Amino acid sequence: MPNASNETLFLTERTARALLREKGYDMHCRFGHVHTIQRNRELHLCMLDALETMDATRFLACLDDALRLSQRIDGPFMPLVETPGGRA
User: Fold this and answer.
1) Residue of 6, 15, 39 whose CA lies nearest to 27
2) pLDDT at 31 > cutoff 70
3) Which of 23, 36, 71, 79 ranks highest by number of CB atoms within 10 Å?
4) The Cα angle at residue 63 between residues 75 and 58, in degrees rounded to 5
5) How far is CA 83 from CA 78, 79, 87, in A?
């Protein structure tokens, strides 16, 4: 049985979960989608059925893409709330 760090011809939900754990993330599957959570934001990685045609490198690239997108979205975050001394 290949371990989670080895690339295989395809991934299963179990091997994908192990890959994410190695990177410090938990995997959540909802309604056929694979997600992980970072800083209270749920990130979509791929469709669950796409794992069958995905190797470890491609799956981790999906994680990198989701993290990169999350960083761009978080960029210059300015909350729209009143703060003492004026608007933030």
Assistant:
1) 15
2) yes
3) 36
4) 140
5) 12, 10, 6
C-alpha separations of 54 from 8, 45, 61, 62, 79 in Å: 9, 12, 10, 10, 38
- Name the nearest CA neighbour of 56 among 17, 1, 6: 6
pTM: 0.71
| Listed range (6-10, 39-43, 68-72) with the worst mean pLDDT | 6-10
85: Cβ contacts below 8 Å, ≥ 6 apart: none
How buried is residue 11: exposed, middle or buried, by Cβ count under 10 Å (0-12/13-18/19+)? buried
Token pair 């995997």 in the structure block, residue = 27
Angle at 12 between CA 18 and CA 38, to 5 degrees: 45
